[in-house]
Specification:
The chain has two helices and no strands. The chain is an all-alpha fold. It has one domain.
Length: about 80
């Protein structure tokens, strides 16, 4: 029995496309997930409000959102 090692499909099985769009679904999902984690940690007392605001700014920069974006968390 021979095992095929070459790719025999016409197109990729998954359609994961890298984009530079800051409002791309995956980018926004990662941003909102990170934000939710930080918000929960702040509510649990791990971070104070000043640290939360600083982290929000860092996340905005990381995910390419300006502070006046409707999608950005501005604490």
């Amino acid at each position: 029995m021979e095992i095929k090692t070459e790719n025999t499909v016409a197109e990729p099985a998954t359609l994961i496309q890298e984009t530079n769009d800051k409002y791309d679904f995956v980018n926004m999902m990662h941003y909102r997930t990170s934000l939710a984690l930080i918000k929960n940690l702040t509510e649990d007392g791990i971070f104070n409000d000043a640290e939360y605001r600083k982290i929000c700014t860092m996340l905005n920069k990381k995910y390419g959102l300006s502070s006046n974006s409707i999608f950005a968390e501005n604490a």
